[in-house]
């Protein structure tokens, strides 16, 4: 018979404390609304801009890069709060990618 280790009580308490920290429905709705409104506004601005097509493609790629970096950082932070191991080098890389996305969208 295999004897599996029993999780410690401290881990269970920390795990359940993290599970209880969920955002409200109003916050989730406001976050989705801000994302959708911002994405649409950015793309309308690109569509109406008097730039060359390759410039528009560059700014659209920067938008997608920034969104991906922001979601990656958010997932890493959430994993860290839930005591899931997070590679610190990867987290720093994601934060730098997020900062570059913000800087290049000037």
Question: Which properties best describe this structure?
Answer:
single chain, 106 residues, mainly alpha, 4 helices, flat
Helix and strand topology:
Elements: H1 9-19, H2 25-48, H3 53-81, H4 88-104
Helix pairs in contact: 2-3, 3-4
The radius of gyration over CA amounts to: 20 Å
In round numbers, the mean pLDDT is 79
Q: β content, as a range?
A: under 5%
- Low-confidence regions: none
How many runs of DSSP E, i.e. beta strands?
0
Oligomer: single chain
Decide which structural class fits the backbone: mainly alpha
Order of helices and strands: HHHH
| Measured distance between first and last alpha carbons | 62 Å
Number of domains: 1
Helical segment count:
4
Biggest β-sheet, characterized? none
Helix proportion: over 70%
Shape: flat
Characterise this structure:
This protein is mainly α. The chain has one domain. The chain is built from four helices and no strands. Helix 2 runs antiparallel to helix 3 and helix 3 runs antiparallel to helix 4. It is flat and about 50 Å long. 4% of the residues are buried. The model has no long low-confidence stretch (mean pLDDT 79).
Question: Can I get a quick summary?
Answer:
With 106 residues, this protein is mainly alpha-helical.
């Amino acid at each position: 018979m295999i004897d599996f280790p029993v999780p410690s009580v401290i881990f269970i308490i920390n795990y359940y404390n993290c599970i209880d920290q969920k955002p409200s429905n109003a916050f989730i709705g406001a976050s989705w609304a801000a994302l959708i409104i911002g994405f649409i506004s950015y793309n309308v601005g690109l569509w109406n801009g008097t730039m060359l097509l390759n410039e528009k493609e560059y700014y659209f790629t920067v938008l997608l890069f920034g969104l991906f970096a922001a979601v990656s950082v958010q997932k890493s932070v959430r994993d860290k709060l839930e005591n899931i191991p997070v590679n610190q080098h990867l987290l720093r890389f994601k934060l730098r990618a997020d900062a570059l996305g913000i800087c290049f969208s000037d």
